[in-house]
Amino acid sequence: MSSEASAAPVRPVQYLQAQLRWQWSEIAFWLATLLPFVLAPSYLVLASQISITALFVLSLDLILGFSGIVSLGHAAYFGIGAYTAGLISKSGWGEPLTGLLAAAVVAGLFGYATSFIIARFRHLALIMITLGIGLVLQEAANSAGWLTGGFDGLQGIHTWPLFGKIRFDLYGYTAYSYALAGLFLIFLIARRLIHSPFGLALRGIRENGLRMPAIGASTHTHIRTIYTIAAIIAGIAGAMLAETTETVSLEALGFQRSADVLVMLILGGTGRLYGGLIGAVVYMVARDQFSGLNPQYWYFWIGLLLIAVVMLLPNGILGGLSHFARRIRGAP
Amino acid sequence: MSESALAARGLNKSFGSLVVAADIELNLPQGVRYALIGPNGAGKTTLINMMTGMLRPDGGRILLGDEDITALAPEQRVRLGLVRTFQINALFPHLTALESVTLAVCERRKVASNWWRQITAYSSEIDEAYDILATLTLGPVCHRLTRELAYGQQRLLEIALALAARPKVLLLDEPAAGVPREESRELFAAITGLSRDITVLFIEHDMDLVFRFASRIIVMVGGRVLVEGTPAEIAADPRVRAVYLGKARHEAVS
Question: Minimal Cα–Cα distance from A319 to chain B, Å?
Answer without folding.
Answer: 14
